[in-house]
Amino acid sequence: MIQLSNINKTFNTGKPNQVTAINNIDLDIKTGEFVVIVGSNGSGKTTLLNLVSGNILPNSGSITIDGNNVTRLPEHKRSKWIARIFQNPLLGTAADLSIIDNFRLAALRTKAKNLSIGKNDQFKSLVKDRIATLGMGLEDKIEQPIGTLSGGQRQALTLLMSVMDTCKILLLDEPTAALDPRSAENVLRIADSLIKEYQLTAILVTHNLKDAGNYGSRIIQMGEGEILKDIAGTEKQSLHQNELFNWFG
Ligand SMILES: Nc1ncnc2c1ncn2[C@@H]1O[C@H](COP(=O)(O)OP(=O)(O)OP(=O)(O)O)[C@@H](O)[C@H]1O
């Protein structure tokens, strides 16, 4: 689903503050894989997500998504494949708009021409039903501005919104870092079940090694712009948390 070949990304090339954020990375992520990325600060995790999403372009190398060479394709042209959830729950939603209007926008993400979508009662009841699955009671508040909700509530809704339109890839960049432990657990559980239900290919960047152990079908450790470890399958499932801690020893 996602292939990175020989990807390099250097910032501030030729200046004293030049930094190689991604150093010659090859990565092949299969459809339906849920990859967890861990690594110290500055190891290149967010840059990697930015390269996949098209938020930044590589200096060299190629990126393929769903069989399409997207290396030079800007972010908005990749949105038909990709939804992204950020650390800050305020990103990804329009605070002043109601919950239902945010869901309308989400459903229109890749369909700018069909602006009539979501005006009818059928759409409202579909959204209410989906929101009810969160078990947060938010289905009765769909006319309320989304900015009045807590970070955890908002992040849960943002996840649901990401699957309102065509989406094959979910990029999660520390989506729970700003949440309390209970909300964080809830949001990750929702993400995990959406990934399974919609058979999404997902990448989760996290500093939480417990989550890194519990979630995902593959784990990658990054260091200084390179892939240091790449473990999948039963080996990933049996990875003990202590072992993960030792990676950072
Ligand atoms: N836009 C930019 N301009 C200049 N340098 C950048 C830019 N984005 C990232 N970098 C640098 O690239 C390196 C990798 O940064 P990146 O944000 O990808 O790391 P990270 O692993 O996500 O870190 P963290 O865990 O702290 O979020 C760092 O040295 C960072 O300072």
Automatic annotation (TrEMBL):
GO MF term list: ATP binding
Record's keyword terms, sorted: ATP-binding, Cell membrane, Membrane, Nucleotide-binding, Transport
Superkingdom field: Bacteria
Localization of this protein: Cell membrane
Domain ABC transporter: from-to ranges: 2-249
PROSITE patterns: ABC_TRANSPORTER_1, ABC_TRANSPORTER_2
Topology in membrane: Peripheral membrane protein
One Pfam entry name: ABC_tran
Gene3D superfamilies for the chain: P-loop containing nucleotide triphosphate hydrolases
Name of the protein: ATP-binding cassette domain-containing protein
Organism of provenance: Mucilaginibacter aquariorum
